[in-house]
Amino acid sequence: MHEISPATPSANQHRRLENYRDLLLILLQKEIKVRYKNNVLGYLWSVGNPLAFALVYFFAFKVIMRVQIEAYPLVLLAGLFPWQWFANSVNSASSVFVSRASIIKKVNFPRYIIPLSVLLNHAVHFCFCLPIIVGLLMVYQKAPYWGWILGLPLQMGIQFMLLYGIALTLSSLNLFVRDIEPIASILTQFTFFFTPIVFTEDLIPQQFSALVYLNPVASLMINWRHLLVDGRLNGMYVALSLGYAVLFAGVGVWIYRRLEHRFAEVV
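Above: the chain sequence. Below: its structure as tokens.
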């Protein structure tokens, strides 16, 4: 008879990775089901919030203030959709470990999978918004650009890296300091008004234009608008937003690793 050789370390690692992948998919499916549970209108609700805000901003800036921005509805939504992905992710990140205390205490698995599933849920929601951009492009006699083939994965990858770093930081710290959640919500609101979303960067006065580079979200959102409206990316903004993403991801991973061993104690 042939002896059954024990599994090699590489085989065990491969099996473990498959288990983690399956767990991530299960958590993601749960997040999506919870989000759209009992929603009869389904897809319409997924895009209704940014569309409602777009209507308000259009009336305020275009009708009342008469801001001279060509194709303003398209420009507005090209900024609001990526921002909604960012804001929803940040606002939900703080509580991801606290709200899942039972699974953290009972099941042994890498905790970083939890914020990963939450962020993927918001990324899927963002993808649901892209057909609206395509429809508006057609209204303005344009079409999706070839630049989207490389630009969309690049922008989504940078934003996801940035958000993952922020999520790891907020969710880890919030277990020990529960004031993190409201503080993060307030900072997100402040960041919105200091980021070129409802206005374009060329409207920023010259003496304040340098502040764009100090805003870790501004370069990313500006490039989203350039990509969705014109099919192009600004190389300097790509480098800047990637730099911020790497920085935030590094800080988030460092904080998570320093605190993870105490999660089950304080959750």
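The two ends are 51 Å apart (CA to CA).
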